[in-house]
Amino acid sequence: MHIYYLPITSDFTPADTALIPFVSDRRQAQIARYPQDKSKKLSLYAALLAQMILSQMTGIAVSQLRFSVTQNKKPVFLNDTSILFNLSHTDGGILCGFSLTSPVGVDIEAIRKPHPGVIRKTFHPAEQNYWNTQNTDIAFVEIWTRKEAYTKMLGTGIACELTKINTLSDELSADLKTWREDSFICSACGDLSEFQKTEITAMDIRQFYSSLQ
User: pTM, whole model, 2 decimals?
Assistant: First the structure.
């Protein structure tokens, strides 16, 4: 599994606008519906990042890349379905994971206080005990991102009985990795035997696409 982390500022500049034609019509329509610049930019750069990596992996031109989504909105790379990938973004950061050996799920979240009732309604008793022991915002986000990454790897999303999933168990922990990037907590789920991380910048993205013009 190879993970790419892309920090993002909220400013939407003319340089960003110039990159919109490189994403699909569907993504362009999605970007246009967002009222806030930060949401537009996250949606745009998540697509640009995935396209760039997949083009580099396969040698297929960006304009020829084709995608679909499952019923639960998990992305599928139609040009080569043996390449499995997943995306996550939050205010200020994007995470993208790729694997040739197993399904992959990723999640990135800003460190924050838990919403009322979330722990009780979504955490397994063992996870609740972990949070009670740690009693920190970081501990909450660690568990939450692990749940997100695991359910995204399964392809179900969080539309399942989350309290029955113990992401701290030995069985699940073997396929889960959690770490910190800047002010974010990240988790990835899948085959971790060849786990790698790379940080990409918005400038890297712009330079790649400017070379295509």
Answer: 0.93
